[in-house]
Amino acid sequence: MSTDLIAEARRQTEICNACRYCEGFCSVFPALTRQKAFADGDISHLANLCHNCRGCYYSCQYTEPHEFALNFPAALAEVRQDSWERLAWPQPLARRFHDSGVALGVVAAATFALVFALLQMMKPTSGEGFYAYFSHNAMVALFAPAFLLPLAAVAISLRRYWAETGGTRLRWRNVVGGFRAAANMKNLNGGQGQGCNFEDEDRYTDTRRWLHQAVMYGFLLCFASTSSGTILHYLFDMQAPYSFFSLPKLLGVPGGILLTIGTVGLAWFKTKADPKLGAQRVWGGEMGFIVLLGATGFTGLALYAATGTALVPVMLAVHLGFVLAFFLLLPYSKMVHGFYRLSALMIEDQKQGISK
After folding, report:
1. Which keywords describe this protein according to UniProt (predicted)?
2. H or E stretch at 135
């Protein structure tokens, strides 16, 4: 754990705890008022509760040029970033992506797309739709490990985080409380219902919250689409390709649209936001994550639109390249923040129950 980052975040946390002007803001502030002294794990917990809405910064009377020079969003962002990199497994890959995410993501996707294009030279003798270019068994052999192994790496990382921040045995109500907080993203409106200050300084807006919800629900719809296709294939012997009014398409098309709109909006907001209020070193990594996630949704839609044309082989290779790159890099990209934030919300639900 970076001693300097923790020390600076602790200094600012103690000042905020003494002031308490922002007590009604997001869940970070009620959490820090429960105690007077903060262990390293407490600081990590507060950092992963923070949604970087930045409302506290624009409301604070102790920012520069005051001698306290508070920049609480940036202090927590640095600790949060450090926790993702430090607790990742294997660790070196995380820092590499966060330093050069756009380049690494694009190169990985392009390399995998080229591999898939070359594999089409060995396409099966039979099959419909996409399976005319890759057999179902080949798809499973490639993507099952690419999905399961990164999830195992994330699980190891979360176990370390859980131990560090003092999480105890989960109860059902903690799980429900964490998922509820994640689903409605209350903390992205500052906790007071007036909105977020991320992209427009002291002006409030809920747009960032809506874009995050578009990304989250778009991704979940795409995942549900793939899952429903798997169920139809194995349980009901209904094999792809599926019609537009089938469950995989009714879930996947809206999911791809939401994912594309959400990521484009977040990328645009990223260019408007003040970089001094976040972890500046990892701007490229954050943008790389957005590019990978958005390209996964967009190329999926483009592939569906190209159905029945000569573009299918090219679009299929490109889409699969982005999907494979996204999943393999998942434990080391900002995608992992969703797992950490959900864990932090569950731990916070635990701590709230203990304090009552």
Report:
1. Membrane, Transmembrane, Transmembrane helix
2. none
Q: What is the pLDDT of residues 277-294, one digit of tens each?
A: 999 889 888 999 999 999
Q: What are phi and psi of 166, to 5 degrees?
A: 80, 25
Q: Give the residue ranges of DSSP H helices in 50-164.
A: 55-59, 72-86, 91-99, 101-119, 136-164
Q: What is the pLDDT of residue 26?
A: 85
Q: Residues 77, 50: contact at Cβ < 8 Å?
A: yes
pLDDT score recorded for residue 211: 93
Neighbours of 310 (CB within 10 A): 7
Whole-angstrom distance, CA of residue 175 vs CA of residue 145: 27
Task: Give the integer Cα–Cα distance in Å for 55 and 167.
Answer: 27
**What is the C-alpha separation between 209 and 188, in angstroms, rounded?**
6
Q: Residue 57 has which token pair?
A: 């910064």
The answer to whether 279 and 74 are in contact (CB under 8 A) is yes
Please count the other Cβ atoms lying within 10 Å of the Cβ belonging to residue 108: 20
DSSP state of 239: P
Sorting pLDDT into bands at 50, 70 and 90, what band is 354? low
CA distance 47 to 320: 34
CA–CA separation, 230 and 93 (whole Å):
31
Continuous H helices in 165-245: 172-184, 207-235
Contact 93, 332 (CB under 8 A): yes
Long-range contacts of 61-65 (CB under 8 A, 24+ apart): 61/21, 62/15, 62/19
Residue-wise pLDDT for 172-227, tens only, equals 999 999 999 888 887 877 666 677 878 777 778 888 889 999 999 999 999 999 99
- Predicted TM-score (pTM) of this structure: 0.90
Tokens encoding 48 = 């992963």
Alpha-carbon span 287 to 105, nearest angstrom: 10
94 half-sphere exposure, CB direction, 13 A CA radius:
21
Mean pLDDT of the residues in the chain: 89
